[in-house]
Structure formats: structure tokens, C-alpha cells
Specification:
elongated; four-stranded mixed beta sheet; 60s Ribosomal Protein L30, Chain: A; transferase; about 270 residues; about 15% strand; 2 domains; Alpha/beta knot; SpoU_MeTrfase; six-stranded parallel beta sheet; alpha/beta; RNA methyltransferase activity
């Protein structure tokens, strides 16, 4: 088996963020607003993370039809939430544009097997912090992950902040958006993958799992970990040994640790 060669280069000297900058506020290039602009974006080939529509208004029939046809999540929200995004004339409609083109999971799986490598898929259950997501994708790309799977709802917006935090890795690692992660796991298992859940609800350590076969690694949300229905589908549950007083690691750090345990086993054992 031919292994991919990877190298990582750290980036120093970046200017620190000013303390008053709002957290996760979208950049102006990450969204479009106004009825006509949103409609034209839906008709284009641009990837859209989600739509915000003012819940008090009822004249979004065409937008809703196009969004449902494309599988774009719609959130009905109060005027105040729209105004927090922009105070310009949004007319009750804002579309968040993704910084990446989403991949089809079946295509990613096929390409991974055809590459001659042992496929490695990372599935993220409700990772909502944009910078965590970007850092995770950076680790995923550097460790040779063939694809990252995220849910349609309840996932971080893939915007300019995510792209920057990933150091451009989002340009290279395929991201698949799935309506139902449970169905995605079932599909992957039927395709020959084992499922390894990284969770504190385990007595086994990450070093005890075998990553030398096609593997899906599941990482859970920052708040409550992996959903119980997904945990039930895991072939193995593993945890990272912790020696300090703090009970858990940041999810992006934890992801890097388990991914590079998979690399260690595949490269050096």
C-alpha cells in the first residue's frame, strides 16, 4: 500500500484578534440578504449553509420551494436575530454561503477505496464552534482523512473564519453534509467500515482500537458528546487518557490526538 506523504508547517506572527471583535459574526462575504439576492443565490451553483427567514412574514414561498429542492436548512427567526447579522435592508431573508463545495458521501467512499489507501472518515456530531471545526479539518487533512461528514442541521457554519482556522485545509479535504448521521453511519458500515466512537463513556483507550482497517471515527459535540443513537452503532468506544484535574479536552485537540494514533498505527506498526 502506498502511503501519502504529509508535512505540516506552523504559521507564526499572525496579528491577534482585537478583544472587542464579536465572536463568530459572519464576514460580509459569507452571506447575502434581500429577497432577490437570496433567490438568485439559490438559483446559482453556490453552496448554502442555511437560510434565515423572518418568522412574522409569509411571502417566502418561492425561496422555500427552491431551498427545499436543494436541501438547504431553513430557520424561521425573529427580526432581532436578522438584525444582528445585518442592519441593512434584508427584507426578512438572509442566506449564509458556504466557503466550500460539499461532496457526495458515496463518491468520497468510492474514491477512498480506489485510491489504494485504507479509507479513514471523520464524522462530526454537532460540532458548532466555527474555529473548532476549522482546526479539526486542519488536523483531518494533515492526517490523511479521506472525508469529513457533518449534519445538515446543528453544525458549524463553513465560513471565512472556518477556512482561516483550517489554514486552507478546507480546500483539500472533502466535506459531506448529511441529513441523518445515523443513516450515514449505516451506509458506511455496509460499505465495509468499522465505527470508532471517541467518548468518555468507555473503559478502553484510543490505543486499544485497530485503525489499520477502513475506519470511521466519530467525535461529539462540545456540550454533550456523541448522541446516544450514534454511540449504539459504534463497533468500539475509546477514550483519551487524562492525567490532570480538568475532565476533558477541547474537541479539536482530542480529534487531533485520535487521528494521529490512527496515523501511527498505519505508518509505523
Amino acid at each position: 500500500m502506498e502511503n501519502r506523504k504529509r508535512s505540516g508547517v506552523s504559521r507564526d506572527g499572525e496579528a491577534p484578534r482585537k478583544f472587542f471583535k464579536p465572536v463568530n459574526r459572519p464576514n460580509k462575504e459569507d452571506f447575502v440578504f434581500g429577497m432577490q439576492s437570496v433567490l438568485e443565490t439559490l438559483k446559482s451553483d453556490k453552496e448554502i449553509d442555511k437560510l434565515l427567514l423572518q418568522k412574522e412574514l409569509k411571502h417566502f414561498e418561492e425561496i422555500e420551494i427552491l431551498a427545499k429542492h436543494r436541501g438547504v436548512p431553513i430557520q424561521r427567526v425573529p427580526l432581532e436575530k436578522l438584525n444582528r447579522v445585518t442592519m441593512k435592508n434584508h427584507q426578512g431573508a438572509i442566506a449564509f454561503v458556504s466557503s466550500v463545495n460539499f461532496a457526495v458521501l458515496s463518491n468520497v467512499v468510492t474514491a477512498a477505496f480506489e485510491s489504494g489507501e485504507v479509507p479513514l472518515i471523520l464524522l462530526l456530531d454537532r460540532i458548532t464552534d466555527v474555529r473548532n471545526f476549522g482546526a479539526i479539518c486542519r488536523s483531518a487533512e494533515c492526517s490523511g482523512v479521506h472525508g469529513v461528514v457533518v449534519p445538515t442541521r446543528g453544525a458549524a457554519q463553513i465560513n471565512g473564519d472556518a477556512m482561516k482556522t483550517s489554514s486552507g485545509a478546507l480546500n483539500f479535504v472533502p466535506v459531506c453534509r448529511e441529513n441523518d448521521l445515523w443513516n450515514a453511519i449505516k451506509y458506511l458500515k455496509n460499505s465495509g467500515f468499522q465505527v470508532v466512537a471517541c467518548t468518555e463513556k468507555s473503559s478502553d483507550f484510543i490505543y486499544q482500537a485497530d485503525y489499520s482497517i477502513p475506519t470511521v471515527i466519530i467525535m461529539g459535540s462540545e456540550e454533550d458528546g456523541i448522541s446516544e443513537n450514534l454511540l449504539q452503532e459504534a463497533d468500539a468506544r475509546v477514550k483519551i487518557p487524562l492525567k490532570g484535574r480538568v475532565e476533558s479536552l477541547n474537541v479539536s485537540v482530542a480529534t487531533g490526538i485520535i487521528l494521529f494514533e490512527a496515523v501511527r498505527q498505519r505508518e509505523f506498526i
